[in-house]
Amino acid sequence: MDRRERVSAADDAPSTEGPACVCWPDPGQAGWNGVQERHDAVPDTVRAFRRRVRAWLDGGEIDEEIAESILLVVDEAVTNAVEHACPDWDCAVRLVAGPRACGGGVSVLVSDNGVWKPRGDPGFRGRGIDLIGRLAQRSSIEAGEQGTTVRMCWPVTSEG
């Protein structure tokens, strides 16, 4: 796939419903409690990120329903990167999840350095993007020459 094809494919990246997320986790912030990892885009990465995010969610004060939504959409976003953006060459998936630096809520970023592929007929699968749009309070998908980034956020962080 040459550069023109990559840009053209990126133009087909879907938008998700609602406003985009703003204000991201800042791993450099003092006392930061979150996840920041990067792995090769291989099938085992999905399981590794799922376990890491689950451990982070279990150790925090995040509402159980929101925690389950976060776990599910991280799984979907990482699976999409591994199966669709990076199937034919080496690339990586990065995850950053934690409290929003501007206060209030949590946010998650999943990015890859692969190539966006337009959606085809989903058949029995292929509904991950729709699921992300429904389960995250705010979400966006940005695709370009450098890869794809899925940004998701939720306003509530504690059970109560």
From TrEMBL:
Query: CDD domains per the record?
Result: HATPase_RsbW-like
Say yes or no: keyword Protein biosynthesis present.
Answer: no
Does the UniProt entry include the keyword Transferase? yes
Any GO molecular function:
protein serine/threonine kinase activity
Keywords from UniProt, A to Z, are:
Kinase, Serine/threonine-protein kinase, Transferase
Stored Pfam families:
HATPase_c_2
Name of the protein this chain belongs to: Two-component sensor histidine kinase
Histidine kinase/HSP90-like ATPase domain boundaries: 42-154
Organism listed in the record: Actinomycetospora corticicola
Q: Which PANTHER family match?
A: ANTI-SIGMA-F FACTOR RSBW, ANTI-SIGMA-F FACTOR RSBW-RELATED
Source superkingdom: Bacteria
Which InterPro entries does the entry mention?
Answer: Anti-sigma-factor_SerPK (IPR050267), HATPase_C_sf (IPR036890), HATPase_dom (IPR003594)
Gene3D superfamilies, per database record:
Histidine kinase-like ATPase, C-terminal domain (3.30.565.10)
